[in-house]
Specification:
2 domains, alpha/beta, ten-stranded mixed beta sheet, 9 helices, 42% helix, Rossmann fold, elongated, 10 strands
């Protein structure tokens, strides 16, 4: 079965199409490109259809200019005010490798933007594209969670590093892998724990576990970073330091005290990143209603 990527094309931003095409050309996947029309203030069905038809013609022209005529693509325009639900339903009906879309976020800590909703609800991975173009020698930062041996998190580490290895090989990325040793925030904020002491105690085991993972996925040339504290701060810090083009991490769309790297932390991390980000999710992940 041919693999596909769902691409959300903004009216004034075709960069997601360009980035999706680069991935599609290298991975031999098809592109299903959609553009949404929301807030159509008309009850006249003929006017509605005309608006959709004109928007679709523009989308086809935009796609043709970027992808050419021989790339395997489909184009469609959807008139709906409930973009998140439409995308979730589409991804439930067709097993997309992932969704590609431009970033839409607010500055609020209580983010209810489309990006946040999709990260919570989509059953597949999502590639959120920034407005930055990739460098000739791109840099990728992959975040893993080694704090527990739970099968679900081990599975997500595998998914993250699988994509890291694949994209590193295809695009000749320089790979960096980060693990943040978890420590309760109040302990850090009130200097109850000595960060250096925690690193001394935890780092050897973490280094051994990272070595096993990098060996498993043929990422022996990857740079590794072991930090301590909140992942949503450490991941952007490392990404900024190494001038990353792409950050890859996992999300299970869950809430709670045990939600360290996966779930809400992925959403919080997005606020601090200016790079592309690939949020990996397996098909069996629990999604929020």
């Amino acid at each position: 079965m041919t693999k596909s990527i769902l691409v959300v094309a903004d009216e004034n931003d075709n960069l997601p199409i360009k980035k999706a095409k680069s991935i599609a050309d290298s991975l031999d996947v098809t592109l299903d490109i959609v553009r949404f029309l929301s807030g159509l203030d008309t009850e006249d069905e003929s006017q509605r259809q005309q608006a959709v038809s004109e928007a679709k013609k523009t989308l086809i022209d935009d796609t043709s200019n970027i992808c050419g005529e021989h790339t395997q693509v489909t184009c469609d325009v959807i008139a709906t005010d409930d973009i998140a639900d439409w995308m979730v339903n589409a991804c439930q009906q067709k097993k997309y490798e992932f969704v590609v879309k431009a970033r839409h976020q607010t500055e609020s800590l209580f983010d209810t933007s489309l990006d946040s909703l999709l990260m919570q609800k989509l059953p597949c991975s999502i590639f959120i594209a920034s407005d930055r173009k990739w460098k000739s020698k791109p840099v990728i930062v992959a975040a893993v969670d080694l704090s527990t041996k739970a099968k679900l998190k081990k599975d997500y580490n595998n998914i993250v590093l699988k994509w890291t290895a694949l994209l590193s090989n295809v695009f000749n990325y320089e790979a960096h892998i980060i693990y943040s040793i978890p420590v309760a925030r109040p302990l850090l904020e009130f200097d109850v724990v000595d960060k250096q002491e925690v690193l001394v105690n935890k780092q050897p085991e973490a280094e051994q576990n990272l070595l096993s993972l990098t060996t498993k996925f043929n990422l022996g040339d990857a740079h590794t970073h072991i930090t301590i504290g909140p992942a949503e701060k450490n991941i952007p810090s490392i990404a900024n330091k190494v001038k990353a083009d792409l950050v890859i991490m996992g999300s299970v769309g869950q809430k709670g005290l045990k939600d360290f790297l996966f779930g809400k932390t992925a959403e919080n991390t997005l606020h601090h990143l200016r790079t592309d980000i690939l949020i990996c999710r397996g098909r069996r992940a629990k999604t929020r209603k």
